[in-house]
Amino acid sequence: METASHNPSTHKPKLAPSMLAGNHAELHKGLDTIKSLPIEWLHLDIMDGHFVPNLSFGPKTVADLRPLAPDLFFDTHLMLSRPDLMVDAFADAGSDQITIHVEPFYPILETLRAIREKGLKAGLALNPGTPLDRTLPFLAEIDLLLIMTVQPGFGGQSFRTDVLDKIRAAHAIREERGLPFRIEVDGGVDSETAPQCAAAGADTFVAGTAFFKAANQDGFRKLIEGE
User: Fold this and answer.
1) What pTM, to 2 d.p., does this model score?
2) SS3 for 75-103, per residue?
3) Domain chopping of the chain, boundaries
4) Catalytic residue check, 96
5) DSSP characters for 118-143?
6) Marked catalytic residue, from 84, 96, 186, 203
7) Do 17 and 42 form a contact (C-beta atoms < 8 A)?
8) Active-site option among 45, 143, 190, 203
9) Tens-digit pLDDT profile for residues 103-159
10) What mean pLDDT value characterizes the chain?
11) What CATH topology corresponds to 11-224?
12) Is position 45 annotated as part of the catalytic site?
């Protein structure tokens, strides 16, 4: 498991392809595409049909993918009304990092600490309409801040440019406090929007539709990761 740097400016840009955009009847083929490239992260969107209006994967899917990709960093994003009740299941399934949302009503701080107690990295996510201030009490407890650039629930949505200001503000707070968390963006990330996010301070980029539909997936990776 990678160790977070205490100098945020040294974070290496990372592409985290999202399995949500793959063919769900043949997830192994999407995984093979990712494994064929020098990609370190895999993003797994977990939806409960309550917090977001869609259903996706459960712990068994994560557990079944884990032995097929032992070297990938499993970046698991829980879009659940009660993520605190599912930490053990997704940790045991093979997640390396679990990201929870700030919006639902549940014990956020205790859940972040429970994730870390399982030996995993902990992330906190917020939706486009949620003020960044909601995350401030928790920033010292996290390894990653996920700033949604679309309303979560479905892939293929258009990027919301109004979220760029939130990314800039998060970057400024990270620098001021000298905190080690990564800044991840998810939603409508493609060859045009990723550079905008990077310029605003993001260093981790979830791409689903744009990645799997790219004519040259390694070229897409190189663009995202700044090579």
Assistant:
1) 0.94
2) EEEEECCCHHHCHHHHHHHCCCEEEEECC
3) 11-224
4) no
5) TT-EEEEEE-TTS-GGGGGGGGGG-S
6) 186
7) yes
8) 45
9) 999 999 999 999 999 999 999 999 999 999 999 999 999 999 999 999 887 666 789
10) 94
11) TIM Barrel (3.20.20)
12) yes
